[in-house]
């Protein structure tokens, strides 16, 4: 090829390169996440397709409730006074409260008798009004004192009147359940106990009382459970796991794959619009097979995301 032909070809190639347009680089569309991470908006319907949903619906669930407990007291028959119960608490301060209640009851009976006597004397002119007032004050003081000790026992899960009626040769187990699991738990409900000291045995019990007090910090409610202990093997202070009878009911449930947990809190993601997903905080109950009971945070037929939830977790929480 002649030199002039080579030069001409090079010039043509150079001109063609200059005329060729450069490719336009477009940004890949990304979801828009709100500042608090609660809302994720997708730019098109195609991008939200992988996040399939299932409706949150109430369904019949069988729920076993279990809770840790301990033998808080042993009940024996008093040798000196068979009509009274000897109660051995695992907490010595409660023993003092119970003993004080018994003494206050005796004092109240004594003071009532004394008041009746003084009033009778006053009616016959043998006692003054001042003596009646003093007798009334002494009775009122004893009645006020017993209330304090009764309240202390109540907060610990014991009813003083029930303690006096408790069956000898039995134990009293105290356990706590969250207030959101209280539905269906009632006095008289049978339960099964497994003690750490006897791991291969099961003991039958029954809920004697559901406390009237909810702990402000833990939101737990104490239950008192009576268990027969004829051979005395079960001792005050022993630990146990309490399992309550199966409760049937309609409860909201979602797939366990829908749940994410971050820093001790549980969340699900709900599709609220064709291209929008929201994060919801939920309160969970028991798990049955692949379903988890949702005690709060969802409404009937909410579209809960069940697939690719970890991707939403990363978008919502920034990791």
Q: Roughly how many Å apart are the termini?
A: 64 Å
- Characterize the largest beta sheet: strand count, sense, and whether it forms a barrel: 10 strands, antiparallel
- Strand percentage lies at 35-45%
CA radius of gyration is 36 Å
Number of helices: 6
What structural class results from the helix and strand content?
A: alpha+beta
The fold-level CATH name of the largest domain is conserved putative lor/sdh protein from methanococcus maripaludis s2 fold
Q: How many domain regions? A: 3
Compute the average pLDDT: 86
Helical fraction equals 25-40%
Low-confidence regions:
none
CATH class of the largest domain reads Mainly Beta
Shape: elongated
Order of helices and strands: HEEHEEEEHHHEEEEEEEEEEEH
Number of strands: 17
Under the CATH scheme, the architecture of the largest domain is Beta Barrel
Could you characterize what this model shows?
Strand 15 (276-288) and strand 16 form a beta hairpin. Helix 3 (92-123) runs antiparallel to helix 4 (129-155). This protein is an alpha+beta fold and 319 residues long. The protein has helices spanning 3-19, 45-48, 92-123, 129-155, 160-165, 309-317; strands at 32-33, 39-41, 53-55, 57-63, 66-77, 85-89, 170-178, 190-195, 198-214, 220-228, 239-244, 247-255, 260-262, 265-273, 276-288, 291-296, 303-305. Strands 1, 2, 3, 4, 12, 13, 14, 15, 16 and 17 form a ten-stranded antiparallel β-sheet that branches. It has a six-stranded antiparallel beta barrel with strand order 5-7-10-9-8-11. The chain has six helices and 17 strands. It has three domains: 32-61 and 249-317, Beta Barrel (conserved putative lor/sdh protein from methanococcus maripaludis s2 fold), CATH 2.40.420.20; 92-155, Orthogonal Bundle (Helix Hairpins), CATH 1.10.287; 168-245, Efflux pump adaptor protein, beta barrel domain (Elongation Factor Tu (Ef-tu), domain 3).
């Amino acid at each position: 090829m002649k030199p002039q032909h080579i030069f001409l070809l090079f010039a043509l190639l150079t001109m063609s390169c200059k005329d060729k347009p450069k490719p336009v680089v477009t940004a890949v569309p990304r979801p828009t996440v709100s500042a608090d991470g609660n809302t994720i908006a997708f730019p098109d319907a195609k991008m939200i397709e992988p996040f399939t949903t299932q409706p949150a619906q109430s369904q019949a669930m069988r729920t076993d409730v279990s809770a840790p407990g301990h033998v808080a007291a042993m009940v024996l028959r008093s040798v000196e006074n068979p009509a009274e119960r000897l109660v051995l608490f695992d907490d010595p301060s409660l023993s003092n409260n119970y003993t004080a209640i018994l003494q206050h009851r005796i004092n109240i009976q004594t003071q009532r008798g004394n008041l009746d006597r003084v009033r009778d004397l006053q009616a016959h002119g043998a006692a003054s009004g001042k003596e009646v007032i003093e007798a009334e004050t002494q009775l009122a003081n004893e009645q006020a004192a017993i209330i304090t000790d009764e309240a202390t026992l109540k907060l610990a899960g014991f009813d003083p009147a029930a303690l006096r009626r408790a069956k000898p040769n039995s134990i009293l187990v105290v356990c706590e359940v969250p207030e959101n699991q209280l539905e269906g738990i009632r006095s008289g409900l049978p339960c099964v106990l497994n003690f750490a000291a006897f791991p291969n045995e099961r003991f039958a019990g029954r809920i004697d009382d559901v406390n009237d007090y909810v702990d402000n910090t833990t939101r737990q409610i104490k239950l008192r459970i009576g268990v027969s202990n004829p051979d005395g093997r079960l001792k005050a202070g022993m630990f146990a796991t309490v399992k309550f009878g199966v409760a049937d009911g309609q409860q909201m449930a979602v797939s366990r794959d829908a749940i994410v947990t971050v820093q001790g809190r549980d969340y699900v993601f709900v599709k609220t619009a064709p291209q929008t997903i929201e994060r919801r905080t939920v309160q969970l109950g028991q798990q049955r097979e692949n379903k988890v009971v949702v005690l709060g945070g969802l409404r009937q037929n909410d579209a809960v995301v069940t697939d690719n939830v970890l991707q939403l977790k990363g978008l919502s929480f920034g990791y």
